[in-house]
């Protein structure tokens, strides 16, 4: 399976993804995000004050799970996350990449002091059909 097939399957399932991070306390934290692909990088917006951003600063390993649809199909990605707060990245990603208005969450635009973007570089992925009973396909970065 190719990464583009993983992207297409995730897009078919849901725009919502649950991301799991682990912080300094070694406790998992799972929250929904609404990511977008830019090439082979998965991006989502957040606040520098969020638990997920603080956890990524301590442990960049993340797992992401697209919401399973009624058929039981699902997609998971494991990768390495980085938090980006530089103004150039925020301005570049602010318009055109996401299918929602980031200003609804950060009304001062990219200049919002605690606005950040998280980049996830996937290392491996798994696509399941009917919870894996009808097959599974994997992808790994070479």
TrEMBL record:
EC number: 1.-.-.-, 1.4.3.5
Enzyme class: oxidoreductase
Annotated keywords: Oxidoreductase
Name listed for the protein in its UniProt record: Pyridoxamine 5'-phosphate oxidase family protein
Source organism: Streptomyces pratisoli
